[in-house]
Each structure stands twice: as C-alpha cells, then as structure tokens.
Amino acid sequence: MNPDSWNALGPGTRWLLSFLVCSWSVISSGSQPDTKFSARLWQMEEGLPHNIVQAITQTHDGNLWVGTREGLARFDGVHFTTIEFPGRITHPSISALNVGSEGSLWIGTENAGFFCLKNGKLLSRSLWDGSRECIALDIQVDNVGTVWVGTDGGLMQINKEKTEFQKGIRLAVSVCVDPDGSIWIAGEGVKHLKDGKITDYIPREGNVPSPRRIYRDHKSIYWIGSTGGLTRIQGDTATYYKKGDGPPGIVSIIFEDRERNLWIGCYGGLSRFAEGKFISENGGASYRVYAIFEDREGNLWTGSEEGLTRLTPNLFKTYTKKDGLTQNMIISTCSSRDGSVWIAAWGGGLYHLKEGAISIFNRTNGLSSDFILAIHEGRDGNLWVGLDYGSGLDQMKDGKVVHYSANDGLVGGAITAISEDLQGNVWLGTRDALNRFKNGKFTSYTTRDGLSHNKVNALCEGWGGNLWIGTDKGLTLRRNDHFIGLPATASKLTEPVLSLYEDGEHTLWIGTRNTGLGRLKEGKLDLYTSRQGLFSDSIYSILEDDKGNLWMNSSKGIFRVGKKEFNDVSSGIVSSLTSVSYSRTDGIISSAQYREVTQPAACRTTDGRLWFRTTQGIATIDPNEITTNPTPPEVMIEQVIADKKKIEGERPKEEAKRISSAGVPWSFAALPASAVRIPPGGGELEIHYTALSFRAPEKIRFKYKLEGVDSDWMNARDRRVAYYNNIAPGHYVFRVIACNSDGIWNMKGATIALIFQPHLWQTKWFLSIGVLMVVAAITGTVRQITRRKMQRKLERMEQQHAIEKERARIARDIHDDLGARVTQITLLSELSNEEDARELWANMRKIAAKSREMAQSLDEIVWAVNPEHDTLESLFEYLSQSADEFLEETNIRLRLNMPRRVPSAKISAEIRHQLFLVVREALNNAVKHADATEIRIDFIFAEDRLHVAILDNGNGFEANSQLRGGNGLKNMRGRLEGVGGQFEILSRRGEGTKIRMTVGLKIPHDCVDRN
Question: What residues form DSSP beta bridges with 558?
C-alpha cells in the first residue's frame, strides 16, 4: 500500500488497520502443550523379541537389556540380540531385571526360573519357598551388594553368605531399599524390614489402598502405586491422588530421573509429576506402561505393550500451525532489535513472534502479497519485505506499509536477499540484477557493471563498508563504489553462493550449493566438503554462537561445527571435521528445507537463541543450554567372519561349551588379549563392531584400521562392518574407535589380534623347502650347464690335442715314410747318371715302385685326416679295398665277413689310422711268413666294442716266442693300446694264425649285431 492509498482511507479504517498490524493475532504460549521430550519407538519389526516390554536395565559394559513377554534381548541402540535360555522354555516371559554391584545381570522370569548372567555365564538360581518355585516380581540391590527379590511367595535375600526367604512376608510385589539398608515391601500392605524385624507401616493420616509399587525419591518421600491411584508418603502423612487428579490408571512403575522428574507408568499411559500436577507424556508410550529406566546418558526408556520407547529431551522448540502459524513452510526469518523474530511462511504472509505471542501480517492487513521470500530489519527500524512473483518490495514501519515495484525503478523478479550498508543504502538481490535503494530511487547493476552473475542469492555487509555479493557464479565484492572480483587465491569459487557470514575476525564464511563451505581469510580461500566431515555440501545459512561454533542450515538439516576444527583441518592437525547434526530426536519436526534460495534462512536473536527455517515450522535453540555428552561410547567387536564363516574367539573349552549351551552372546572385547586364529582360506575378512551410545546411535561415527594392511585410519562413518579381501597369511591387529553424537571419541576403542593361518603351500617350512628345491634345481642346472661347458671345452681341448697329435703324426709319417722314399728316389736318380743303361732301367723301375708306394702312403694319410671318413662304413670300405688290393697279386684268397647292418657311429681319425696300419701289417706278415692260401677278415660288434679278426690257414708259429723276440707284433700291440684298444694273437705251428683287434665305440643299441 502506497502513502496515497493509506491517506485515502478514513480515520476509523486507518485506526483499525494500525491496531491489527500491532496485534492481529495473539496466541498465548500457555496454550502450548508442556512437553519437552521426543519419542522413538522400537518394535518386533526392528528385532525386538516381542512388543510387550516388561523390564529394562543397563549393565556396566553399557549394553541395554530389554525383557519382553517372549524373551530377553541385548540392545546396542541399533540392533537387538536375542538371548537363548536353556531348558524347555527357550523364550521366557521376563518379569524383572537388575544389575548387581559386581556387574552381574539378575533375570527374573514368569515361566522359566531365576537366572544370573555374570562374565558370560548364565547360571540358574532357585526361588524355592519350600513348596514351589516362585516368580520374581521385582529385583533390587542394596548398598552392600545384597540382592532382594520380591516374589509371589515372599521376599528372597541373596548374598555371599546365604540365600533364603524372609519369614513373615508372604507377598512382595515391589521392593524399595533405603540408604540405611532397611527394606520396604509392597504386597500385603506396606511392610518395613530393618535389623531383621518386620513392621507394618500405617500412616496417621490417610491410607494406602492395594499397594503394587513402592518407590523412594531424592527427598526421602515414598510413593506407593496402587490399583486406584498414587499415594505420597512423607513422614506419617499419606496423600492420595486418585484417578482423575493423579495418574490415569493402575500404577505399574514409578521412577525418578536425574533431573528430579518423577515418572509414573500405569495402565493409562505415562505421566510426569511436576509442580504438584501430573503432565501427560504419551509420546510413543502405550496404554499400559510396565517399565521405566534412565541410562547413563540421561535417555529415558519406557517399556509398554507397544514396544520399547526412548524419550530424549528436546533441544529445539519448533513453532508450527499448532502454535498459531497459518503455514508450516517457513521461507526466511530475521531478528529484531527488541529480541523478537520475524518469520515469513510460503503463502502465509508474515509472522511476528514476541514474548510468546504471534502476530500475523498478510494481504488482509496491509501487505502486498502473502508470498514472501526475504525479510530484513534496517537500522532505523524499517522492516523490508521482499516478495515473490515480481510483486516488488514492501517497507513496514510504525504500522505503515509502503510498496515499491518495477514502476518505481526496481529491476528484476523475485527478491531473494536484502542488506543495508553503513551509509543507509538498501541492497536488494533478485534473480535478474542487484538493486540499490538510495534516497527513494533504485539503481540496478548486472554483469556489465562487474557482477559475476545477474542472479543474486546472498548479501552480506562486510567490514569497512564492504558489500559481499553471492551470485550463481561465485562471489563479488563491492568496495568504494566499485565491483571487484575475488583475489587469485579464491578464483576456484565459481559455483552458486547461497549464504554469507563475516565473523568478528573479518573472516568471510561462504555457503555454496554442492561444493561445501568456503572460508576466505586474509585473501586465501579454503573449501570444506563432506569428504572432510562436513554434514552437507549445500549451505543455506551460517550463524555463530558464543562458544565459537558455526551453526548451519543445509539441504540435509541443521548442524554445527567448531570454528577451531576448520583451522585444525587446514593445518593438517586432524584429517576430518566433526559435524554435530540435529534431527527429530532433538525436537526438530522436519529437517527438510525450502529448495529455493531465500535469505535469511536462519537468524540469531539478542538473547543468543538461534532460529532456523524448516518445511514443518521454525525451530529454535539456545546454544548455551546445550550440554555436550561427555561420555565416549563403549566400543565392541561383535563378530569376525572369514571366508563367509563365523570365527569364534578363543575361550577355555569348558567355558565356551557352557556359554554356547546357554546361548549368551559375547563380544571379542570381553576376551583375553589372545589372538583369534583364522583357518587357511581365500583371505576374505568381515569384522562387525558396534558402539554403545543411546542418545543418537544413528549418529555414532566409526574409524578402523587393520595394522599390516591399512596405513591410516579408514573413515567408516556410521557403517558398523569392515570388509577386506585377499589378506595374506600372517599376524594382524584390527582397531576400531568411535565417537558419540557430540563428537566425543573413544580413542582406546576395541582391538583384536588376528592370525591368518597359511595353506600348506604357504607355510614357512614348505616355502623353505620350495626355496631350497629351487636353489638346488638352479644349482644343479648351473652345475650341469657348467659341466657341459667344461665338457665341451674339454672335448674341444681333446679335439685340439688330437688334431695336434694327428698333425704331429702326419708330419712324422711324411717325414719318416714319404721322406725316406723321396730320399731313395733321389739316390736312385743320382746313381742312374753314373751307371750303364741296364742299371739305369733297373733303377727307373725301382723309382717307379717307390713313387707308387709314396702315392699310396699319401692316399692313406689323406684318407685318415679327411673327416668325411669318420664313419665305420667308410672304415670297412677302405680296409676291404686295401686288403683286396694288397692280396691282388698273390695266390691267397680273401674272405670278408661283415655285419648285416653297420651302425652309424663315429670313429676318430687316429683310431682309423692305427687300425688300418695294424690290419696292413697283419696282412703283410701273413703273405711273407705264413705261407697261407686263405685269409679271412671278420668285423664283429659286441655291445659297445668293435672286433676285427684276421685269420689265415698258414704254418702258424709260437705266439709267445714271437711276441718276446720281435718288434713287429709289439708295434702292432702298441698302436692299438695307444688308442685305447686291445691286441690279441693266437697261433700254433701248423694250425694257422688269428689276430684279434678290439677298439671301443659308442654304438646305438638297435645297431648291435648280437650274433
């Protein structure tokens, strides 16, 4: 509404509108339900043995134990592990639970007996009263460790000295222990046991009808629940609260928490007694409540016929339509100097929350539109309201509304961000341009003027009159009437900027879309993302509390991070940030956010409270009231699975058998530090672990490391299992640590030693033998190769020696034989010159004979040295031809006996030559001296030897005398023995002569003549 329109209204109308602007709709905060807790329910679908929960307690190791109508379960905040009981009834109805002074768990059942679970042992205890086994209805432990069990047959006392029923008490439904050691019993009235004496309690005033539960609070006031209500006993006075004035039904349980709240569970729900009245707290609790328990972190647990419920104190207060808003979709919010809050809702106009009352402003009382995107309160008290759909800008002050639009020079569509500089200029960010409102006029700026993009998402007044402008393509700074880009060190910021905040140290914090949080400090830009522990990479707003924490509203919800952690990450002191997030368990109805860019998406009021927009109302929190949970979570290793088979830890055999038969679960953390041995396999490993923190178990974060495999901690986030593949045999240590929802780490964590046993072929001795075999094989191969090389070298040397020897022999033969014949020829030639013609012809014939002999000798030498004749076949052929030629001019018949098949064996030149000379000498002797008519030459192969025999039918002789006296036979023997052969002569006078020559050969087996 512009000023002219406002003045055109009548005085009465203007007064009425002014009144409506100041207090259109006032809703008292007293009408709001007085509830401070959020409820979370677990049922059978989440693993609970049964939906009727009758008892709850927590043991010293941090585990929560839940007794149901059909069994007992251990709960770690995420998973239930059901306990199997021995005997016929494996899933008993649990009637009572409590923890002994030494940490044992006492378990009472309705149909399976009474038990004690201690150090993994489940032991049965008797509640025999002399006639029957009684049912445990209540279990309490006094300050000296005595266990008092209320049963349907009386009161049982259990300690180290005795286990017995107290005489004089026939029914003990509920038991209460005084600090002085005396016992109060509710059953047949109220009885008091002190120093072995039992007295009935009868108050002077009032009465105690049908007591079912008795409880003593911190003021020594006794509360007695009954079928008709609740009785308060202080001294001798009893005050009775009947149904209607007190609890809504039969009282079943009474409990006082650490905040001194008295809780009453009954057959009509759950209520809390505060300031003399009963306040219903039915969030998540059923019609019938059987058990109430507070864990060590301050969480309140209730057991009812609908399951297990956790009640957690709400850190946030959320205002919704139930509190007076007309719409729950909150778009933006800003604080006022008077401590109040302005809230814009989608299509619902504008709300002003002040001192618990909500005033509504919309089109019916002056606003130009109910669709508001951005709001900002100026230094002069003006409230600037940016509208959607091109509806322009509203200015509100002192009950008046002034409207500006494109007709006034405003450029752009929807207004998404508003800011004011030191000179009083109002800056408006739109989807098309940046506008400045000064002295009643609008000036627009775009990329032509230096903006990084025309779509402006966020504005922030900086130190020294600077203006930071976040656009769809990064950040722009306006300084001294000029738009400038970022320093070179910050040039990597090119994504959409959604939010801006400058702290007292002049550090600019930059919320982006999908690229995390930026910090521009001293010209250097650092980016922090989810990879470094940031809860979300899309930041819609940034606030700071008095403790140095940054609070952010994001695409995933609200979270905070200590500013110091950003320094530690940038300095490398720590590797990741600790983001503390908030959800329904903290009182926030919804973590969802309006998807469009609007500012501010959060604000801080003068009292330090923080306000955040959500799609289900506006949520507020006082950071100064937050108490960090200082208790680090207990960490346990629950299961080790190798190659898809569960590995049991090492316990004494008797204990392991006893525990296994009882079905009691245990964790590796409870075992001695001995290593877990894993049988030979494929190296596949799966380790399940958990941590006990019930405030927000889904927010527990884990890190683990397998020493010997991982060089650093692995960030598992909320995953409770570690996977490994191809683990080699050897010794390893697995460590896991965890932090609670407030980032408090248990650095000790849990540790387990693992020994991966090798396959046979992976053992050290097998590998040693294998190495030795390989070394032996290599050594043998090297030795064989060396031997062969040496053998070949030796053969070459022998061959060279043989060649040298053969050369020497050839030289000797040439010198001795051919040289002698040449000399004879020379002498005959010289004599021929001096004698007559007759002698000349005789000498010529001698010269011719000597020349033929010399040619034959030369032929023998050439045959002997030619390598082509190094075969037996060539030897036989040459010997046969020579013998035939030698006997050609005699009357002696030659017979040759040769094998059917001649082996393809090699024979050296020296052996051939010496054998030839011996054969020729034998033939020569036979012709000259034997007077024989027939000579036979036999060639015989026997195994690897060659036998050559020369037989004649001549006169014969005494071989021994010839061998002793002549040189011919000795030379023949010497020639053969010189080449490794044998020489043998057999002869008698008148019986002929046999000469046998033997030389060694390597002849193929199939070529040997066996005949």
Answer: 553, 582
| Three-point CA angle 802, 804, 807, nearest 5° | 105
Q: Which residues, in sequence order, are bridge partners of residue 458?
A: 470
Q: How confident is the model at residue 653 (pLDDT cuts 50, 70, 90)?
A: very low
CA–CA dist 742, 410 (Å, integer): 47
Helix/strand/coil for 798: helix
The pLDDT value recorded for residue 687 is 94
**Helix residue ranges, H only, 552-649:** 563-571
Q: Kindly state the tokens that stand for 903.
A: 């082996």
Residue 531 CA to its chain's centroid (Å): 16
Residue 649 predicted with pLDDT over 80: no
8 A C-beta contact, residue 395 and residue 384: yes
Instruction: Report residue 686 as tokens.
Output: 């799966």
From CA 866, how far away is CA 494, in angstroms rounded? 94
Cα–chain-centroid distance for residue 29? 51
Place of tokens 């004879």: 824
Task: Enumerate the H helices of 478-545 as residue ranges.
Answer: none
Cα atoms found within 13 Å of the Cα of residue 738, Cβ hemisphere only: 27
Q: Are 341 and 605 in contact (CB under 8 A)?
A: yes
Q: Give yes or no for a contact between 241 and 272, defined as CB atoms under 8 angstroms apart.
A: no
Pairing mode, if any, of strands 934-942 and 982-987?
A: unpaired
Cβ partners under 8 Å of residue 196, min gap 6: none
In Å, the largest CA–CA distance within the chain is 189
Measured CA distances, 550 to 90, 305, 511, 542, 873 (Å): 53, 43, 12, 7, 108
List Cβ neighbours of 110 (8 Å cut-off, separation of 6 or more).
Answer: 92, 93, 94, 95, 135
- Rg over CA atoms, the chain: 57
| pLDDT band for position 393 (cuts 50, 70, 90) | very high
Q: What is the pTM of this model?
A: 0.70
- Of 706, 699, 704, 733, the closest CA to residue 716 belongs to 704
Element (H, E) at 690: strand 685-692
Q: Give the three-class secondary structure for 837.
A: helix
Q: Which pLDDT score is estimated for 959? A: 63
pLDDT score, position 27: 36
